[in-house]
Amino acid sequence: MRRKIAFSLCLIAVAAIMMNSALILSLVYRDFTGIFPGFWKLAPFLLLLFVAVFVLAGLLSRWLTRRIVDPINRMDLEHPMDNVLYDELSPLLIRLKHEGETLQGTIAALTARQQQLDSIIRNLAEGLILIDKNSSILAVNPSALTILSAREGEYQGRNILMLSRNIKLQKAAQDAQRGKRTDVILEVDSRGRIYELLASPVEKNGAVRGALLLILDITEKYNAEKMRREFSANVSHELKTPLTSISGIAELMKGGLVKPKDVPGFAEKIFDESQRLIALIGDVLKISRLDEGAETGSKESVDLLALSREVAGRLAELAEEKNVSVSVSGEPVILYGDRTSLEAMVFNLCDNAIKYNKKGGSVRITLRRSGGEAVLQVSDTGIGIPAQHQDRIFERFYRVDPSHSRQTGGTGLGLSIVKHTVQYYHGRIELESGENRGTIITITLPLGP
């Protein structure tokens, strides 16, 4: 037997009241079973309506959002006030304009400063290398590449070993990274240039962050210091030689070991050595004054042709002893300068030309004007100067043949005085010579005051 079970939904309400000692109950019964069949019939339509409303609301929300946001997304931030937007955004646009102008000014200033710094570093004659604490290159300028003979390329971010493997450079960089300042001398190219390397640590907040390497070309300074030391040594030697001779003779005479008949000879020797000392000291003083750019006397109009003839007359006796003829020719050339220094220049040129000449040889002095310059030329038929010595012949105390120089006398400073005098007058000096072919020295001096 089958039973049909039906579910029903009902509402039962009970109310009780006490009246005259009697209890009155009220019972209300309501059956809702008949409502559900209608509801379930409408449920699909209600669900469909809900979905449709939800989708429509989403689309509408998206459209409204895009309509509101799109003008903001298309806004030109570089020119905020040119945008047509909502009035509510006007304060924001004004603020953006102000911040943009401030930011652009800051960026422009930083860019200009960076370009200026890059230009300074790029055009520095000194080599500059900046590395971090890991020895990676942060910056390097063209001068550093040239000095280190490194190939052109991009070195930023690469190890300093890729730039140079010079041991002194690497050690200086390592010392600087440890906080130690270093100053060393480098010889890194085949041209004989001398460089000074200054390595300094780069610190921030008390910690070393890297190192700065600065490479300075000190070739001229180094050579000048070397020449100064050599000059001092040579002066000491040149002074010692005659002083030793004078001291020795004086000691013999003091001890009564010199015969009366030999006294005049010893006196002459003392006189000669004294004159040599006086000449040496005089030449040293001349060179010192010329080095300092100081005038040795007052300036005046000097006729170089007449001056050359006077010098030739003073050297006539020496020329006769050497059996050398001296001639002066050319045109009068007036130069405004110090007569004493010009005379010393001509004298030393002619003196060397006579002393280093051959018997029966000749010395020719010629003067001419070329444009706004005076040209003095001294030529001889002497022993000449070998090619390997010509670059150094104007150095102080330099002698091609020291034994021959001792025989001819002199201080070894004559041609150096000539060179310094020409430099003082901003002139030029040219040398043509060859072994056993004589020598021609041409000096060109500007005639302007």
Low-confidence stretches: 1-7
Strand order of the largest sheet: 4-3-7-6-5
What Rg, in angstroms, do the CA atoms define?
52 Å
Average pLDDT, rounded to a whole number, is 81
Distance between the termini: 149 Å
In the CATH hierarchy, what is the architecture of the domain at 299-446 at level 2? 2-Layer Sandwich
CATH-level-4 superfamily name of the domain at 299-446:
Histidine kinase-like ATPase, C-terminal domain
Q: Please, how many helices?
A: 11
Question: What report would you give on this structure?
Answer:
It is a single chain. This protein is an alpha+beta fold and 449 residues long. It is elongated and about 185 Å long. Among the domains are: 124-217, 2-Layer Sandwich (Beta-Lactamase), CATH 3.30.450.20; 221-291, Helix Hairpins, CATH 1.10.287.130; 299-446, 2-Layer Sandwich (Heat Shock Protein 90). It has helices at 36-73, 90-122, 142-147, 167-177, 219-254, 263-291, 304-314, 316-321, 339-355, 402-408, 414-424; strands spanning 10-19, 22-31, 127-132, 137-140, 182-186, 195-204, 207-217, 299-303, 325-330, 334-338, 362-370, 373-380, 428-433, 439-446. A hairpin with an 8-residue loop joins strand 5 and strand 6.
Features:
449 residues; alpha+beta; Helix Hairpins; Heat Shock Protein 90; five-stranded mixed β-sheet; 14 strands; 46% helix
Provide a compact summary of the structure:
The chain is of the alpha+beta class and 449 residues long. It is built from eleven helices and 14 strands.
